[in-house]
Amino acid sequence: MLDTDWSDGWRSAFRIELRAEAIGLACHGWPVLPGTFPATPDGGQTTWAGPEPVHADWAERFGVHPAEVAEWWTKPYSLLVATGKVLDAVEVDIELGKRAAGLLRATGHPAPIVATPDGRWLFLTTVADQLPERLATSGEVRWHGDGSFVPLPPTPYHHGVVHWRVKPDVWGWRLPAAEAVHSVLARALDQAESREVRSQRLVAASAVA
């Protein structure tokens, strides 16, 4: 009984935290959306690839007042933000994300960065018309623009919680220009490929020796 009471209390507290975060983001003009929540182990759900919008017409629910957002999160929903209207997100793996984050820090212009429990990093930017060819053809970058969405902290997964690597208030809630972040990501890709080429050359040289 004590275990059940503790679990119910934790879920209630976590739901309150998600609701408060959603309201706060809505107050900053971010188009937040309620998303699906991972089922409990006894809930009959065997697979869960990640949160999806709860409302079928989610793409039409932009510019919602914080008061309505508060109404949405009376249930245990995850926290999503629609992309392509107020902000975009560029998704990469953790290694490329770390490299790009280091380059951004060096410029003195950090970008809000979200990390998911499955090893993906999301760089939030202003809205762009398209992704540069260098990124679009790399096979390592996914652009979330118009018609897409991404999870935001503290959305839960089965094996962890989405969290901020760099919070948006670090830069006063001003999103970095998409072009600037795209440029840094391209540099990070170039550095990673140069390192891979050097590594392959060393292996080849060792084999010959």
Features:
disordered N terminus, alpha+beta, 209 residues, 19% strand, single chain
Please describe what this structure looks like:
It is a single chain. The protein has helices at 2-27, 66-72, 94-107, 133-136, 178-208; strands spanning 32-35, 78-83, 88-93, 113-115, 120-125, 142-144, 148-151, 156-157, 160-161, 163-166. With 209 residues, the chain is an alpha+beta fold. Helix 1 (2-27) packs antiparallel against helix 2 (66-72) and helix 3 (94-107) packs across helix 5 (178-208). The N and C termini lie far apart (68 Å). The protein has a 5-stranded antiparallel β-sheet with strand order 6-3-5-4-10. Strand 8 (156-157) and strand 9 form a beta hairpin. The protein contains 5 helices and 10 strands, in the order H-E-H-E-E-H-E-E-H-E-E-E-E-E-H.
What structural class do the secondary elements suggest? alpha+beta
Subunit organisation of the chains? single chain
Fraction of residues in helices? 25-40%
Q: Per the principal axes of the C-alpha atoms, what is the gross shape? A: globular
Strand content: 15-25%
The chain-level mean pLDDT equals 85
Number of H- or I-type helical stretches: 5
The count of DSSP E runs of length 2 or more, i.e. the number of strands, is 10
Q: Write out the strand line-up for the largest beta sheet, numbering strands in chain order.
A: 6-3-5-4-10
Uncertain spans: 1-6, 197-208
| N-to-C series of helices and strands | HEHEEHEEHEEEEEH
Report the biggest beta sheet as strand number plus sense, adding barrel if it closes: 5 strands, antiparallel
Radius of gyration, in Å, reads: 20 Å
Task: Report how far apart the termini are.
Answer: 68 Å
